[in-house]
Amino acid sequence: VQLQAFGGGLVQAGGSLRLSCAASTTISIFSINVMAWYRQAPGEQRNLVASITRSGRTNYVDSVKGRFTISRDNAKVNLQMNSLKPEDTAVYYCNFGEFTGNQYWGRGTLVTVSS
């Protein structure tokens, strides 16, 4: 299963971006447990930003609460990012986790927030 993420780009502080990620190959939506977005800033490790379960339960890292919203639609996951800050600059990766334990990663999309 290959995931394709898109929607990154350059935006000024205070602006918005919407990231989307979908599987480029057939995957059963019933096999997907958790969909998530991670990010990795230069020189740092990859960290969870937000996740959403099949039942719709969401989880956010404290630094994005109230600004980011994760949503899912079948085999597609979105991340609406508002009130962006320079510290949000990173490569964002989508992740699908199946009930079987299999994990799939997108190739990453760069988000750059200028001050």
Estimate the helix proportion, in percent: under 10%
Catalogue the unreliable spans.
Answer: none
Distance between the termini: 37 Å
Q: Helix segment count?
A: 0
What proportion strand?
over 45%
Largest sheet: 7 strands, mixed
* Whole-angstrom Rg: 13 Å
SSE order = EEEEEEEEEEE
Structural class, by secondary structure, is: mainly beta
Give the overall form.
globular
Output the keywords.
four-stranded antiparallel β-sheet, 11 strands, globular, 115 residues, seven-stranded mixed β-sheet, single chain, mainly beta
Explained architecture:
The strands form two sheets. Strands 2, 4, 5, 6, 9, 10 and 11 form a seven-stranded mixed beta sheet that branches. A four-stranded antiparallel beta sheet has the order 1-3-8-7, with no helix packed on it. β7 and β8 (76-81) form a beta hairpin. It is mainly β and 115 residues long. It is built from no helices and eleven strands. Helix content is 0%, strand content 56%.
